[in-house]
Amino acid sequence: MKLIGYFRSSAAFRVRIALNLKDITVEHAFRHLRRGEQSTPDYAALNPQKLVPALVLDSGEVLTQSLAILEYLEETHPEPPLLPKDPVGRARVRALALIPTADIHPIQNLRVMTYLRERCGQSEEAAFAWSRHWIETGFAAYEASVANDRRTGAFSHGDQPTMADLCLVPQIFNAGRFKVDMAKYPTLKRLFDTCMKHPAFDAAQPARQPDAEP
Amino acid sequence: MKLIGYFRSSAAFRVRIALNLKDITVEHAFRHLRRGEQSTPDYAALNPQKLVPALVLDSGEVLTQSLAILEYLEETHPEPPLLPKDPVGRARVRALALIPTADIHPIQNLRVMTYLRERCGQSEEAAFAWSRHWIETGFAAYEASVANDRRTGAFSHGDQPTMADLCLVPQIFNAGRFKVDMAKYPTLKRLFDTCMKHPAFDAAQPARQPDAEP
Questions:
Q1: Residues A93, A196: one domain?
Q2: Which of A80, A107, A124 is where one domain is finished?
């Protein structure tokens, strides 16, 4: 399999953590998002959504959308599991995963920030405030969801990493770029610190990727 | 079970279609989003994300995030299936479902449009153009993904409705409010027409809900 990603993409980061946790070795290829390499005709032919990541299977089939890729990896490489066994627990983990994946990241990713500046005439400062607003809104919801729930353990759900942690951690990296004060989200901070001690998370972080830039 | 929704919410609409397809009867309750009823303390205690829908189980547990709810319904009420059997097909359906769910709707939902107008000083016209831009970007990706794929059938994946159709149809309803020209997306138009002939989709549409307004 080949993962096409970008070191700073939160969505690619989620998939890298899953591959590490499940000990799946893949070839890595890169599209430089700030240079628009996700919009070239050859990449659009591979992924009409013109987003990273894409996972190219050995059969040649191309999987897109990080959450769909995570579910595929879970179904085809079930150990260690990234979802609990019980349906209610699975729904909780998926709902937590969707907070960064659907309700934060898509609203403040590169293409949206570009539109805000170029077509809505927003300053760098206003675009920055926008991004921070949606991160903080989502983090407040995540914090309220995990802080007093007995199902929260060392990780977001129990004592092993789940899809929720895989989606949370890249968003916290992203939040650092927007100077979000994590002290407001003590449970998220604790979960992040626990995750980053895990080699699968550490090795997946942007700075450790071959295409990383300062 | 009780579904807390709002007639015009795309996310609640997805869940209503699934309940109809699987012939699951639930109690319906409503939060009027334009009156801010999703942000009251009693609802925030139920769903800290302050979004609809929420599915309250008979056990009292509350499920949130429409895609997590769809997966829960699929796991607990497997017939008729909303996902194919093969992992690559499942990944395709989930990736299609995520185009409206993650890459269109969160960028142009009520709270984002409100922020654009009130805090970015955008006119009604500019907010309208914003919404249309993200719908058209996502629809172009969906169209390119289904138009020439042999797995596309009467529905987005094969000849039975899947999660992909459940997520596409509410977004096409929403697109109508933003005057998106569906002639540019002939496959989506065909899929929509097929879906809307199905009683499960028809009965779930906003105008048929008890809380509907003109």
A1: yes
A2: A80
The first and second tokens of residue B110, run together, are 């009520």
**Looking only at Cα atoms, what is the longest distance across chain A?**
49
| pTM of the full structure | 0.97
What is the least distance, in Å, from the CA of B199 to any CA of chain A?
27
Residue A152: DSSP 8-state = B
Residues of B in contact with A76 (CB under 8 A): 87
Residue A112 within a domain: yes
- Residue where one domain finishes, among candidates A80, A108, A132: A80
CA–CA separation, B125 and A190 (whole Å): 44
Contact by Cβ (8 Å): A139, A175 = yes
Residues, chain B, total? Answer: 214
Predicted complex: ipTM over 0.95: yes
The tokens for A54 are 């894409």
List per-residue pLDDT tens for chain A, 214 residues long.
999 999 999 999 999 999 999 999 999 999 998 888 888 999 998 999 889 999 999 999 999 999 999 999 999 999 999 999 999 999 999 999 999 999 999 999 999 999 999 999 999 999 999 999 999 999 999 999 999 999 999 999 999 999 999 999 999 999 999 999 999 999 999 999 999 999 999 999 999 999 999 8
**How many Cβ contacts (< 8 angstroms) between chains A and B?**
123
A211 located within any domain: no
> Could you say which of A75, A112, A145 has the minimum Cβ distance to residue B90?
A75
Q: Which is nearest to A100 in space by CA: A108, A92, A111, A91?
A: A108
- Residue B210 is assigned to a structural domain of this protein: no
Q: Which residues of B touch A41 (CB under 8 A)?
A: none
A65 to B116: CB separation less than 8 angstroms, yes or no: no
Q: How many domains does chain A have?
A: 2
Looking at the structure, tell me whether residues B99 and B195 fall in a common domain: yes
Residue in A95, A97, A144 nearest the CB of B63: A95
Measured between CB atoms, which of A72, A101, A141 is closest to B102?
A: A101
Range of the structural domain that residue A173 is part of: 87-202
Task: Choose among B63, B64, B91: nearest Cβ to A72.
Answer: B91
- Chain B closest-CA separation from residue A204 CA (Å): 22
Model confidence over B69-118: pLDDT tens digits? Answer: 999 999 999 999 999 999 999 999 999 999 999 999 999 999 999 999 99
